[in-house]
Amino acid sequence: MRRRFAVLPALLCLAFAAAWLMGVAAAAPAAPPSKLADLQVLFERFSGHVALLPGTTPEASREFPLVQWLAQAGLAEHVKLLTAEELVDPGTFTAARFPVVLYGSNEPYLQSFRKPGDCDEALVRYLGQGGTLLVLPSGPFPFFYNEAGKVVNTSAKFGLPVCGGGVNPLPEHLRGVATSLNGPPPGRTLTFRAAPAQQVVTSLPASVPYPAQDEADQRWRGILNAPPAGARYVPVVSLHDDAGNSYGEGVAAIEHLEGRFKGARAVYVWCSLLASARTREPILAGVLHYALTGATPPPAEIGASFTARSPTVDGRLDDSCWATAAQTTRFLPPLEAPVPTNLPATTARLCWTAERLFLGIKCPRRPDRNGDDVVSVTWSRPGEANPQRLELRPQASANGLPGGTEAQSAVNGADWTAEVSVPLASLGIDAPRFGARASVQFTRTTEGNEPASLAWSPADAPGTVLLAPDRYGDTFDFYPEGTDGSPYWRITSGSWRVENGTLVGENTGDDGYLAEGAALDGDWTDCEFSVHFKVESYADNWRDGPRIGFRCNASGDGYHVNFTDRHVQVHKSILGTTTGEANALAVTPWKRDNEWHSLKVRCLANTFTGELDGEPLFSFRDDMVLDVPSYRRGGIILSARRWTRSQGDMRVRYDDVRVTPLPSAKRWSFE
């Protein structure tokens, strides 16, 4: 049995952050929104750049109430659910990539992952870069327990003077006041009042009663006006009693003007103000608006999807490659400009071949259809001062195209569409390879009753287009020879290299039944997964062989197909605990060889069928195996398992990884 996380049984439950030296009133408009749904455009500007800290288990963050509330408001798709690996990676979790990070856990949080305290170190490093932390917990005392259930009480480490969180001694103005309660004091009536000078939360009633016992957690763990040196404390919603006593704040902001967190901000909200329906919407909307309007969205970035078949450039967007091509967020007005009443959902899709980048643009037609309607596409080679540019209009051919570029537009009912084909060489990509970058910007300018100027990349800079693999698989044809497939494949064990358009793995770990090695992280639900593999050398233990994981999460838990010298076994893992040979999900006789084979696995809800070289291999249904529900989403792991005591090298060659979503599949779901 192997453990990656210890679990508290009773509580299982990524441009820029500018140095922020202005007061709250200067940072936010006078009337922040009162509803989460009103934040849609603001969240779109930061899509993929608002992060959520991981929970104490790999899947925990999906169950946070905060995530459910954001999903209900249509905002969750813009939030990046960080994995533990991403959190502790200094190149991934940065304030430049994620200007705002959210804490949505209960009282336990993930303090350590690879080494003691490395998650704390990551958050301290982030705040030192000027990031914004919003603490929106589902329990009364955030950062109180670690993943092992130990009391650590580290909120003060992150600049949060939560009641009982290390603020000792109390400042003079707080002495003698009960700052940690388990409910209203006998004979006292407690009420919340919004601070008059603040402009963060403006739509609360003048007085909000303390939540009833049957409404929310009664344990008061407010935040105190005792910020770190060099920080400004901004009370937002304060707790008072009918005798005039103050008990601290249920909502407050801390702005770091000097010190090790200079430029950073933090916001704390007491959990029961979020649990209560009458206060949740205005408070969440206000603090999220405050956080995002005080940050600058990074330039846009997107991975164009590889396609083996070029689309026909006729402007119609009807080739099959467009259905799976990567799509941008909709184009938005500049940060300082008003948002049109009926903002058109103008978007672009991007894919590429070995010679060209293809851009497909969809423009809903404005209702009045008066005046000019122009889409501009600009791109440049690295270091080029004057970018190349073309303009597209509905029912008009593009003129004066840069050399080798093709473009055509078409009107399709309520939309007009366009397709553009740009030689990779004109983007500065002379040798196509995964990870190659190009600078591209899309804008749309419309005239009429309500003119608009929209752009894809929200900052004063073009966006970045990266050449990426097919979103639903990999042929390994465009990696530099000898590299390990990263960053698209995440290496967790063994030695990996790209060789002649295949991925070769050697001597990956796990002495149990897990697949460890090269992970293709994904959120695929119902799908068919296929891969080709060939063993080139075997180690001498009979269990050594290819292992292939599917519906696996970032920590490797999921389903694992083990090819041994006796059987093909299918196993399930949860938190490092797996099925074994006595209770495998499926067992089929098998003798190993050195031939190419094709594995296909069909995943539909909790039923799974496998084929090898077109012949049935296994079929099973997961009804609470290991006393946990079946996995309904996840990615892929490739492995070349070698037992630690084995002699010889285990080497497996993989090719043609493919995921085909079934009609019922969803790539993002909180159901």
Describe this structure in words.
This protein has eight helices and 38 strands. Strands 12, 13, 14, 15, 16, 17, 18, 19, 20, 21 and 22 form an eleven-stranded mixed β-sheet that branches. The protein has a nine-stranded mixed β-sheet with strand order 2-1-3-4-11-10-9-6-7. 9% of the residues lie in helices and 33% in strands. It has 671 residues and is mainly beta. It folds into three domains: 268 residues, Rossmann fold, CATH 3.40.50; 171 residues, Immunoglobulin-like; 188 residues, Jelly Rolls.
Low-confidence stretches: 1-30, 665-671
Structural class label: mainly beta
* CATH topology type of the largest domain: Rossmann fold
Net shape: globular
The largest sheet is: 11 strands, mixed
Helix content: under 10%
Cα end-to-end separation: 31 Å
Level-2 CATH architecture of the largest domain: 3-Layer(aba) Sandwich
Estimate nothing, just give the exact number of structural domains.
Answer: 3
CATH class of the largest domain: Alpha Beta
Total helical elements: 8
> What fraction strand?
25-35%
Task: Write a brief caption for the model.
With 671 residues, the protein is mostly beta strands. It has three domains: 268 residues, Rossmann fold; 171 residues, Sandwich (Immunoglobulin-like); 188 residues, Exo-inulinase, domain 1 (Jelly Rolls).
Tell me the layout of helices and strands.
Elements: H1 24-27, H2 40-45, E1 50-52, H3 65-72, E2 79-81, H4 84-88, E3 100-103, H5 118-128, E4 132-135, E5 180-181, E6 190-194, E7 208-209, E8 220-221, E9 231-241, E10 246-256, E11 265-269, H6 271-275, H7 277-293, E12 301-306, H8 321-324, E13 326-327, E14 347-352, E15 356-364, E16 373-380, E17 388-392, E18 406-412, E19 415-423, E20 437-446, E21 452-455, E22 463-468, E23 473-474, E24 490-491, E25 495-499, E26 502-506, E27 518-524, E28 527-537, E29 545-552, E30 559-563, E31 567-574, E32 577-578, E33 586-589, E34 596-604, E35 607-612, E36 615-621, E37 634-641, E38 651-661
Parallel strand pairs: 1-2, 1-3, 3-4, 4-11, 12-14, 12-22
Antiparallel strand pairs: 5-8, 6-7, 6-9, 9-10, 10-11, 13-14, 14-15, 15-19, 16-17, 16-20, 18-19, 20-21, 20-22, 23-38, 24-27, 25-26, 26-38, 27-37, 28-34, 28-38, 29-30, 29-37, 30-31, 31-32, 31-33, 34-35, 35-36
